Amino acid sequence: MPRPSTFATLLLGAAGLAFAASLLDAVRLGTARQPSRNERRALVDKLGLTDLALFTEARYTRHPSQADLHSALQDHPAAFDHFPTGALLAPPPHLTAPYASLAGKTASPD
Amino acid sequence: MIQLSAVKKAFNQGRPNEYWALHGIDLAIEAGRVTALRGPSGSGKTTLLTLIGCLARPTSGRVRLKGEDISGLPERFLTEIRRQTFGFIFQQFNLIKGLSALENVILPAFPTGRPRTELVEKAEALFEQLKLGHRAAAKVEWLSGGEQQRVAIARALINDPAVIIADEPTANLDTALAKEFMAILEGFTAAGKTVLLTSHDPLVVESSAVHRVVGMRDGRLVDA
Amino acid sequence: MHPWLEKQRHLIDFTLAALARRKAKNIGLLAAYALLVFVLASLALFTQALRKEASFVLAASPEVIVQRMVAGRHDLIPPGYLEKIGRLRGVQKQEGRLWGYYYDPVVRANYTFMARPAEEVASGSIMLGATLARARGLQPGNLISFRSYAGKLFSFKVAALLSPDSELLAADLVLLSEDDFRAFFDYPAGHYTDIALSVANPQEVRNIAAKLANALPDSRPILREEVLRTYQSIFDWREGIVLTVLAGAILAFALLAWDKASGLSAEEKREIGILKAIGWETGDVIRMKLWEGVLVSLTAFLLGFVAAYIHVFYFGAAIFKPVLQGWAVLYPSFTLAPAVDGLQVATLAFFTIFPYSAAVLVPIWRAATTDPDAVMR
């Protein structure tokens, strides 16, 4: 049975190496997976897509960037989100920003 | 070698349960001899032992080791002196459970940073001397009382101290083992070590291995 | 070897030997801690990678999407709308998009139908996203029928499947010709779902949006930067669901930390007293305990992180799949490119190692600083 501190040093050393290896691998994988990323980007360009197809439960989770102000409140203004992924996706910032144009000056007199 | 001047020790000072264990002790311990403190429980023997062995500081008075005043030293220096000069054998042995005899013995030397191989060698030599060689790797809770005490003795010797302090060393031993212990004491004297112990066991106090007996009662020295 | 180094090794020897006395408990503690780090690190790595993916891939989205709103709801783009935009300077290309949602009762999934030009998809044919094809068991050459919302049955032939690499974007896509789309959804002639604008100069985009707002007051332009910003806040800790996933682990861990920090048992106090009595300084005792805290938490961090890395980038964050999928039937299979944020890793390391080491150290402070004479009694 080796000395405890030797054992600990070896274990920690191995863990440290694994950690360093993971960081290096991150770089390697990043480069390796870039071509398929480029393909995806090309697809977005071709089809004019605007959202990731991660949450296909509801309209406002499938296309969160395109959702209108009231999508999440279909049945009742105070209704909770129906879908679990609604809790993962915050409302898009541009939805919660004030609608300045509604308060702005009009070009012609009322 | 060790000199105490007007040493007093109080516990819980300033609080309602204030208790003075020592009321002014003047004592000189000679080097190379075995000195025994004798007295009933509550007489302050153990407290005196802790003060001499730098486990605690006196409330007032001075403790001098080889002429140097150690009662006012900061903790770090005090600990170093304690480690180098004193080896303790506690009444309850106070071995660390769950660790082997060997690990217990080399423990006091850890802060010195000496290489482990050196410590293990020394420990094994001590085990040989104390006839514990075959029990080095055993966990201390599995050892018999006599074996535990010998492990405690080995632990006290690992740093080659000049002074051995033992608190009621034969309290948990039968006669045969007590006699063995006295023989070990004689070995210490032969090696030039100073020994200070407390006991109310006549076997110890009246033994030829003990050179001087100091009586204590109610925190004061009395004639033996 | 240098005495200081040797001394640290001795202290580590002791602290590990002490931990080894309760092997099962301490290995369990290490495992629980590593598990917690694993979950947190997986979440961090996954989120970061997904955000980077979105920001890279969606950078090719149209610069402006023009929607029409009637009484707060989406409405169709009527004929003539496109012409009104046509005269705006800086708009390179504009096209009306035709797309919508379809609920498939057979597998109870939602699909996105999109109309594409004739060169891409012929009438009567469709192209499917790979996830959808898998769910319906379809291959190129197969026939499939959908019942329209009006009740009529439409048959299509699967011309091709979209690449499996694109599942993250096209999981539920059904591409069909414009005529088929309009016929299937009974879409009024000349109307579109929305309009996609291409703008050459990125600085011009906001101006164009402003001009659009003036020219078409019932329009709502969505800029690409807004689309990208949507995905920067993905997985923000909005509601408790993400926390619920962690709650079990956090609770278990809080209990362990509380147990440690709530003080020493008499046995532990006595042992520290013994160490001090046999010649250890206060500093030695504290250093020894610090080694315990650091060794355990550092090991937990390294093991947890490496496991999280492998989990997210080689096993596709399989543990989060049930949470992410929710009630959806279609869930894309995708592999993310790693995007390791140094700051995040450093923060995780700090919060793993520091509080735990402190929790181990704090209760022994009092015991380590008391005079050792108590041991004699």
Protein model, in words:
The complex is a heterotrimer of chains A (110), B (224) and C (377). With 110 residues, chain A is mostly helical. Helices cover 50% and strands 0% of the residues of chain A. Chain A contains five helices and no strands. The longest helix of chain A is centred in the first third of the chain and has 29 residues, at 4-32. The radius of gyration of chain A is 25 Å and the shape is elongated. Chain B has 224 residues and is α/β, with parallel strands linked by helices. Chain B has a single domain, classed as Rossmann fold, CATH 3.40.50.300. In chain B, the strands form two sheets. Chain B has a six-stranded mixed sheet, sandwiched between helices. A four-stranded antiparallel sheet of chain B has the order 2-1-4-5, covered by helices on one side. In chain B, a hairpin with a 7-residue loop joins strand 1 and strand 2. In chain C, helix 11 (282-314) runs antiparallel to helix 13. Chain C folds into two domains: 3-57 and 234-376, no CATH class; 99-186, Beta Barrel (Barwin-like endoglucanases), CATH 2.40.40. In chain C, strands 4-5-9-6-8-7 form a six-stranded mixed sheet. In chain C, strands 1, 2, 3, 10 and 11 form a five-stranded antiparallel sheet that branches. Helix content of chain C is 53%, strand content 17%. By secondary structure, chain C is α+β, with helices and mostly antiparallel strands. Chain C has 13 helices and eleven strands. Chain C has helices at 3-20, 23-57, 81-86, 130-136, 167-170, 178-185, 205-215, 224-232, 240-261, 266-277, 282-314, 321-325, 342-369; strands at residues 64-70, 73-75, 91-97, 99-104, 109-116, 125-128, 143-147, 153-161, 173-177, 194-199, 219-223. Chains in contact: A-C, B-C. The interface between A and C is large, with 64 and 92 residues.
For the structure shown, list the relevant keywords.
heterotrimer; A: 110 residues; mainly alpha; 5 helices; B: alpha/beta; Rossmann fold; 32% helix
